[in-house]
Amino acid sequence: MGLAKRVLQGDVRATARLLREVEEELPGAIDELKVLYPHTGKAHVVGITGAPGSGKSTLIDVLIDAYRKENKTVGVIAIDPSSPFSGGAILGDRIRMQRHATDEGVFIRSLATRGWHGGLSKAAANVIHIMDAMGRDVILVETVGVGQAEVDIMNFAHTSLVALVPGTGDWVQTLKAGILEIADIFVINKADKQGVNEVEVELQAMLQMGAPSAAAWKPRILLTEAINNKGIDDLMEVIRQHRESLIASGRYEAYLRERSRLELVEVLKSSLMDRVSRMATEDDYVEKLIDDLASRRVDPYSAASDVLKRIVQEGKF
Amino acid sequence: MGLAKRVLQGDVRATARLLREVEEELPGAIDELKVLYPHTGKAHVVGITGAPGSGKSTLIDVLIDAYRKENKTVGVIAIDPSSPFSGGAILGDRIRMQRHATDEGVFIRSLATRGWHGGLSKAAANVIHIMDAMGRDVILVETVGVGQAEVDIMNFAHTSLVALVPGTGDWVQTLKAGILEIADIFVINKADKQGVNEVEVELQAMLQMGAPSAAAWKPRILLTEAINNKGIDDLMEVIRQHRESLIASGRYEAYLRERSRLELVEVLKSSLMDRVSRMATEDDYVEKLIDDLASRRVDPYSAASDVLKRIVQEGKF
């Protein structure tokens, strides 16, 4: 039986293998993805971002518990943007999460930048599709939320959580970086720390300035102490409310379409980039152009234009 | 007289205007860049990265002073990767640098992700070229060093500095993220703080493990207190030594070629991406494909393949 068929039956080992084959860009892996695609779109995707130290991993850990108590199966995608090379930088945070490793209802996968040559956004979309197709009810996507790639990934989530901690000053930077626009729920974690009220008051003020009052969903602010399991029931309830609001208002359909557009662009970009990167390392013609560039006999724009014409002429994609 | 010609004469206002026109992608700006390109390749480009709080900005501030005392003109490019939306997130750090604003020999420019649709790496390359063409002797490029884009930018520098501070634990993360491979000089800044020795010893151990012993340049470790102007003379001397080593060993030429390859790829990618992004928002054919994607009647890979065929058929780039 093909890998895709076993993934559709929820087979954990087949899913892990398909993820590896997609990551390694093995021939045939894309064909398996194509088989899975019509069966996707069922899982609820929850994005969780926040600065390092905001307790995202603990939060995800207790959310996994809460969903498992509701008999829902969970997929977790932990994305590590700080790691262009090694993939190991923030895995230490995730040791706690590993206690779910023996539970077949919890499927955890880390995504480092390395190894996903096609770009992190496309990779995240693929992993979401695969976990969705294997029948996971909920998919939690953790990012650190610093770069454009991570913001793009948050766009693939149905519900976006931002974790903040009082007293670090980090939350102001997070907000300034445009997180306001994409957050559905703010979770002030470690709410036993000093400074919770200040964060809440300032956050509320910023939300009142920024958000259109006619929006179907107004971003909510919740306090949690994930490590002591406090506030998690309320958080689960608000996530549920957000999902219901999305569906009731018709925005779920609109978001689905927007995500399809984003994914099409990501797949196109990465296919083109692959072609361009291969040309720039394999093609004698390009080697000659690079010599001319290095010695300033041609400029990068004229050189790029030459290469594009060549791609079109040769029909090489 | 054309903008490019005035830039070549070192005209600060013309340079600021060309940078704006390039940023806004005004017609003609690329033509001005093409005029400048043959005159580039003279400046020494020094990349400086480090986690937030490592004192990069203060370090750059005192380096500016040191270069000005040698009667060298300086360009500074401060890159703000944390800011996909607003561009304002870490500008506060740079207030100190602004005291150079009245010195015509110092040209400072911030680069936020926003506004440079073609990608941050291409933007950085363009700003480096323009400052180079205006005759700046030294160009300091500051990044925060978290994502692939920032690592790509560091590849455009001739000499790469990594700023670390004792006692925060951040430096370990920085190193794990692959900075070891690209750093020529490690600057342990705020060397009056506790924990300097530990950082130095661990760093030295990591370098001995990682670096090939036959390399023409072995990464150096320096201690500074930028805010008290301590250690800066030594740092200037080591930067000079690194440049001389590059030239003497022939690696300068090799690096120039590698940077040309990178830039060609960046320009190609961004041209292609522009085209793809425009198609995905303007083209009825693509709108129909997105409907099919959202309803799972087609998968993203088959859809992308259709779009690519269409681009080639229409010769639209």
Tell me what the structure shows:
The structure is a homodimer of 317-residue chains. The first copy, chain A, has 317 residues and is an alpha/beta fold. Chain A is built from 12 helices and 7 strands. Chain A folds into 3 domains: 32 residues, no CATH class; 210 residues, Rossmann fold; 49 residues, no CATH class. In chain A, strands 3-2-4-1-5-6-7 form a 7-stranded parallel beta sheet, with helices on both faces. Chains A and B meet through helix 3, helix 6, helix 7, helix 10 and helix 11 of A and helix 3, helix 6, helix 7, helix 10 and helix 11 of B.
Largest interface, C-beta closer than 8 angstroms, per-chain residues: A-B, 68 and 68 residues
Indicate the multimeric state: homodimer
Main pleated-sheet profile of chain A? 7 strands, parallel
> How far apart are the first and last residues' alpha carbons of chain A, in Å?
31 Å
> Helical residue percent of chain A?
40-55%
Order of strands side by side in the largest beta sheet of chain A?
3-2-4-1-5-6-7
Shape of chain A: globular
Mean pLDDT of chain A: 82
CATH topology of the largest domain in chain A, by name, is Rossmann fold
Cα radius of gyration of chain A in angstroms: 22 Å
How much strand content do the residues of chain A show?
5-15%
Summarize the structure.
The structure is a homodimer of 317-residue chains. By secondary structure, chain A is of the alpha/beta class.
Properties at a glance:
homodimer, Rossmann fold, alpha/beta, 7 strands, 3 domains, 317 residues, 12 helices, 7-stranded parallel beta sheet
